[in-house]
Amino acid sequence: MGRAIMLLMMMITTTMLHAVLAHLAHEAPAPAPGPASPDCQTAILGMADCLTYVMPGSNLTKPDKPCCPELAELVKDNPICLCTLLANSNSSNSVGLEIDVNRALKLPTVCKVQTPPPSTCALLGIPVGAPTASETPANSPGSGLTPQGPPASASKTATSVMAFLAGLVIAVLPIW
């Protein structure tokens, strides 16, 4: 009878361990955006006429004339590339372009080109963070997007469950 209880406890422990690991895998944060695909690199480079408007420190009130049609074409053909560009804008990215996120987010309005909202990028697995406080002018609202990690309670729960399972195994081992 002692062996049957031991086997039952081991099966319960294993099942609980699998459940905890599956739960943790489900709550893991989305991976950071990777390098832009070659197709996106080509598409983004096709918007070269917009660079003078979106570069940090630009004082232009409107982009160069060819920019808006290039933006419209990118939105039509490769909208996910906009997500890639915005997600990589605050870091050294694979495209190699540094842009002012605030100006880039205003570009569709200036060009009168309808784009999906930036929050859609997160749904596609490409989270776009909000500009930092130093990038946001004092009189303009931020984009409302903030990066989020897993809930703090998830790691505490996992730690306590793992401690319980380890204690259970240690308590049952001498019986066997």
From TrEMBL:
Membrane-topology descriptor: Lipid-anchor; GPI-anchor
Gene Ontology annotations for the cellular component aspect, listed alphabetically: plasma membrane; side of membrane
Keywords tagged on the record: Cell membrane, Disulfide bond, Glycoprotein, GPI-anchor, Lipid-binding, Lipoprotein, Membrane, Signal, Transport
Signal peptide extent: 1-22
Biased composition (Polar residues): 133-146
Molecular function in Gene Ontology: lipid binding
Residue intervals of the Bifunctional inhibitor/plant lipid transfer protein/seed storage helical domain: 40-121
Pfam families attached to this UniProt entry: LTP_2
Keyword Glycoprotein in record: yes
The protein's name in its UniProt record: Bifunctional inhibitor/plant lipid transfer protein/seed storage helical domain-containing protein
Family indicated by similarity: Belongs to the plant LTP family.
Native species: Prunus armeniaca (Apricot)
Main location: membrane
Region annotated Disordered, chain positions: 132-153
Compartments where located: Cell membrane
Keyword Membrane: yes
InterPro entries, alphabetized: Bifun_inhib/LTP/seed_sf, Bifunc_inhib/LTP/seed_store, LTSS
Protein task: Plant non-specific lipid-transfer proteins transfer phospholipids as well as galactolipids across membranes. May play a role in wax or cutin deposition in the cell walls of expanding epidermal cells and certain secretory tissues.
